[in-house]
Specification:
Structural class: mainly alpha
Strand content: under 5%
Number of helices: 4
Distance between the termini: 72 Å
Radius of gyration: 25 Å
Largest sheet: none
Helix content: over 70%
Shape: rod-shaped
Number of domains: 1
Number of strands: 0
């Protein structure tokens, strides 16, 4: 059985996390019984279960990129304004 990342698990809802843990426990038991044919089915269910959390993680990343872009744009504007003020002071 393959665990998903800590970041993805952190974005699972309580219901999703409970189901994830239960499926993982079943899959682990099946591995102990060497029922790898059934383990694959359980793993596929887990993979489907975590898809919404993966999308939430991607959205957080996209939002962070937008915030960074906005910050850099504001920083550049402030630097340009500061330079303009410095240039005005030098002219006086």
């Amino acid at each position: 059985m393959r665990h998903c990342s800590v970041q993805v698990r952190g974005l699972l809802t309580r219901e999703e996390l409970d189901r994830y843990n239960a499926l993982f426990e079943v899959g682990h038991y099946l591995e102990e019984q060497k029922r790898y044919d059934l383990v694959a089915i359980v793993q596929k269910e887990i993979d489907l279960l975590i898809l919404p959390a993966i999308e939430r993680l991607k959205e957080k990343s996209r939002q962070r990129d937008r915030d960074t872009e906005q910050y850099l744009r504001r920083k550049a504007e402030m630097e340009a304004q500061l330079k303009a003020l410095e240039d005005e002071d030098e002219e006086d």
